Structure to design on (333 residues):
């Protein structure tokens, strides 16, 4: 039987890797780096054989000419980072090993559970995958199965669907005959504004939403999360707050169990998410 | 649809180093070149100019 070795939820803020290297970095960075180191250690302790990475493409691989709602990569290796991300964020190019066997198993199993993933044999992953890996596994030596969601380009799947897809993936994993230890690495947002008038403001965008959003996960409160994540409320909290939907998928993967760690860190930036479900 | 085409063009220039360089050198000429391979058309520029980047 396959085992979920760990589930980790984390930011994919692409500005941070470069920010952390600056000698005059803002004081809040130390708190962020502490949490990242904690998550890195949790992943090392869990010692997974493969990582299911859940994130969202940022109009790099996909555009509105052909936009999948939920997609699985099916490759034995993935290139990471696009030209504009190297230019704007200073992110490095990278190459991540893949696990095609698990990609196929997840997709086939999901079909049987009412989830029709799109798939790609030519996938390049952007910062929603590479930045979390830089944070928690900079060696990038664990094969991945990337799952990408559309949580930024309306019309989007409903919050309930994100949770249901997470539940379906968990059910597939629980039913696999493989002995692999499967880790899950999810990236997303709490309240956040990108490209709007509040971008780059070094404060929590919507502390009330952030507290609720962390609380829903902390308490396994699926109904509260689904009621609280209306498009209007998420937009009010910031135009990219819908990145929180990836964490609803994470809740599904965790079967809404209470996490070992849940925090929306206030470090002088928009809230930075950190979640983990540790191995039993 | 014009907003979609504009976003498509911006994405194309943003993600492609050679396109970015060529567009900066001569925005009008690059837009015209790009449109030759597109079924959809950009809206006419307001004031007759293109955005300089």
């Amino acid at each position: 039987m396959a085992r979920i070795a760990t589930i980790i939820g984390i930011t994919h803020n692409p500005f941070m890797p470069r920010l952390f290297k600056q000698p005059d970095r803002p004081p809040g960075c130390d708190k962020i780096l502490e949490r990242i180191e904690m998550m890195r250690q949790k992943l090392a302790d869990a010692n997974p054989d493969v990582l299911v990475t859940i994130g969202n493409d940022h109009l790099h691989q996909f555009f509105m000419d052909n936009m999948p709602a939920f997609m699985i990569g099916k490759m034995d290796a993935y290139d990471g980072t696009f030209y504009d991300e190297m230019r704007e964020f200073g992110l490095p190019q990278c190459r991540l090993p893949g696990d095609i066997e698990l990609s196929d198993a997840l997709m086939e199993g999901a079909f049987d559970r009412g989830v029709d993933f799109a798939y790609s044999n030519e996938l390049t992953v952007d910062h929603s995958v590479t930045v979390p890996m830089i944070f928690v596994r900079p060696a990038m030596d664990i094969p991945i199965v990337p799952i990408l969601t559309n949580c930024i380009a309306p019309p989007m799947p409903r919050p309930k669907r994100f949770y249901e897809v997470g539940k379906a993936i968990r059910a597939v994993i629980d039913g696999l005959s493989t002995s692999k230890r499967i880790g899950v690495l999810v990236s997303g947002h709490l309240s956040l504004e990108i490209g709007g008038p509040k971008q780059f403001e070094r404060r929590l965008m919507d502390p009330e939403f952030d507290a609720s959003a962390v609380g829903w996960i902390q308490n396994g409160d699926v109904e509260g999360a689904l009621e609280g994540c209306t498009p209007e409320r998420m937009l009010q909290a910031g135009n990219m707050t819908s990145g929180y939907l990836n964490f609803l998928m994470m809740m599904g993967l965790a079967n809404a169990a209470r996490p070992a760690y849940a925090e929306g860190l206030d470090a002088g930036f928009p809230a930075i998410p950190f979640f983990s479900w540790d191995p039993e | 649809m014009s907003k979609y085409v504009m976003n498509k063009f911006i994405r194309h220039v943003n993600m492609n180093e050679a396109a970015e360089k060529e567009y900066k050198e001569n925005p009008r000429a690059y837009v015209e070149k790009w449109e030759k391979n597109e079924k959809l058309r950009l809206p006419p520029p307001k004031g007759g100019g293109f955005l300089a980047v």
Summary: The longest strand of chain A covers residues 3-10. Chain A touches chain B at residues 59-60, 63-65, 82-84, 87 (CB under 8 Å). Chain A has ten helices and eleven strands. The two ends of chain A are 15 Å apart (CA to CA).
